Amino acid sequence: GVTIDEDQITTVEFSLEDIGGPDIVAVTQLDDTEDTAGPYIVEATITDHSGVDEQVLVYTSSATGLPVSEPLSVVDAETGLVRGLIPGQPNGTRVQYWITARDDLGHESAAPAGAPWPTYSFMVAQVTVIAEDDGESPTGWTVNLQGNDNATGGAWEHGDPIGSEYNGQQVQTENDHTPVPGVNCWFTGQHQEGQSAGYNDVDGGMTTLTSPIYDVGDHGTVEVNFWR
After folding, report:
1. How many CA atoms lie within 13 A of 210 on its CB side?
2. What end-to-end distance do the CA atoms of the chain give, in Å?
3. Sequence-distant (≥ 6) Cβ neighbours of residue 107 within 8 angstroms
4. Residue 68 contacts by C-beta under 8 Å, 6 or more apart in sequence?
5. Are 57 and 27 in contact (CB under 8 A)?
6. Which end of the chain is less enclosed by CB atoms within 10 A, N or C?
7. Measured over all CA atoms, what is the biggest interatomic distance in the chain, rounded to whole angstroms?
8. Measured between alpha carbons, how far is 97 from 92 in angstroms, rounded to an integer?
9. Per-residue pLDDT for the chain (228 aa), expressed as one digit of tens each?
10. What contacts 163, CB < 8 A, 6 or more positions away?
11. Which sign does the torsion angle of CA 199, 200, 201, 205 carry?
12. 4 CB contacts (<8 Å, ≥6 apart)?
């Protein structure tokens, strides 16, 4: 019940109840490394209007398989910047880690959301690049290799994509990931200027893009990374 009169200032006093856990942002996402000495530094910014009671870095190592919890140390109390250390790990180790926090009212949160699954992760290993493809050439890639594709539109194709938007949201990218002068990539259906965003999207079934065969027989742990 608020009455607002013309040309008058109306003051309303109210209170909000804190029902959520602390905000955990700007978490360090560690890259794969060949450094077995460590430590591996993880930082984050954790804040809460009700005050932060506990903030913890949790990590597991494929070398031990057991989760370890370490309190995060405060670097800057005003901004909420905190820091944790994961000790060095043996070569060939996969490390998974996440952060949990609890405010003074007992509300909890985690980063990434839903942890301990999913988690942040990285490999401690000597890394050998087996194959690398910038997508500028279609060589070795095959569309509908098994002959089972049945999409009536939007089949995979290679080239320089023309971007499109729908209700202000990007539907198809205008640029590939490769730095200039690279422009080509694989995408589902080319859009043309002036056509609707759904002109050549995937319709009526599936479309399949298959990579070349990569020989990884002489390697142990193998990891695939791609941009999408």
Report:
1. 10
2. 51
3. 18, 19, 20, 21, 22, 48, 50
4. 58, 59, 60, 61
5. no
6. N
7. 80
8. 16
9. 778 889 988 888 888 899 999 999 999 999 999 999 999 999 999 999 999 999 999 999 998 989 999 999 999 999 999 999 999 999 989 999 999 999 999 999 999 999 999 999 999 988 788 999 999 999 999 999 999 999 999 999 999 999 988 898 888 889 999 999 999 999 999 988 888 888 888 999 999 999 999 999 888 778 888 988
10. 170, 172, 173, 174, 175, 191
11. positive
12. 10
Tell me which residue has tokens 């980063």. Answer: 111
Residue type, 23: D
Q: How far is CA 28 from CA 15, 47, 205, in A?
A: 34, 16, 40
Residue carrying the six token digits 């690049």: 129
The residue behind tokens 């080239």 is 159
Place of tokens 């994961």: 86
